[in-house]
Amino acid sequence: MKQPRVFAREQVIDAAWELIREHGWKQVTARSIAGHLGSSTMPIYSHMKSLDDLEKELKDRSRKLMHDYQMRDYTGNPVLDIAVGYVVFARDEKQLFRFLFLDRPDVRDSEDVLQMRDSFYEQFGSQETEDEMISGMSPKAQEGLIRNSHIFSHGLAMMVNAGIIHPCANEMIRGYLEDAGEAFYLLELRKEEKSE
Predict the structure, then answer these.
(1) How is residue 100 annotated by DSSP?
(2) How does the average pLDDT of the chain come out, rounded?
């Protein structure tokens, strides 16, 4: 009887990573990873106690790659670059985006919106002009701006990912995001004026 080959844990994760990028989450099984490695499933199970362990590893890698996209200079405006990078990631890494936001999404509640601004500045820093504009708004208006901008960016990313908006060059993505951001900012200012 042929002995199973031995693989390092990282090799198993790398094989799953290649499969998910090419075929999506539904095709990532112990059998498909073993096939990719030219092995039986036994070495796969020796490294992964459950599919949950593998899912966590793949989510961490996917989020890191998405973060790398968001830190690229697309416009010279770091705040806008983050949003453009999010949509470009959805366009260029279709299966990873679907994995994170359709196949295995993390559930968010209304409390998450309240933490978005702090998390944003913590991860990415701030740009003086945008920071001044946002800090001059009431907390309720800030939350509305962040929530609406996030929903629009995610919706745009979903449409680009699905091929509904095609072709979609970086400049086109930038235009959509700039227009939406300005509209949401003005909307929140008008709401504040009405409530005074």
Answers:
(1) I
(2) 85
| DSSP code of residue 26 | G
Determine whether 20 is exposed, middle or buried from the number of CB atoms within 10 Å of its CB (0-12, 13-18, 19+).
buried
Q: Is there a contact between 96 and 116 (Cβ–Cβ < 8 Å)?
A: no
Using pLDDT thresholds of 50, 70 and 90, give the confidence band for residue 111. Answer: low
Block residue for tokens 């933490």: 115
Cα–Cα nearest to 100, from 69, 140, 60: 60
Distances (CA, A) of 160 to 44, 45, 187: 35, 36, 25
How many percent of the chain have pLDDT more than 90?
55
Other beta carbons less than 10 A from residue 42's beta carbon: 13
Residues 30, 45 contacting (CB under 8 angstroms):
yes
pTM: 0.84
Instruction: Please say if the pLDDT value at position 16 is more than 70.
Output: yes
Residues 43 and 65 in one domain: no
Residues 88, 44 share a domain: no
89 and 30 together in one domain? no
Is the pLDDT reported for residue 152 higher than 90?
A: yes
18 and 79 fall within a common domain: no
Helix (H, G, I), strand (E, B) or coil at 85: helix
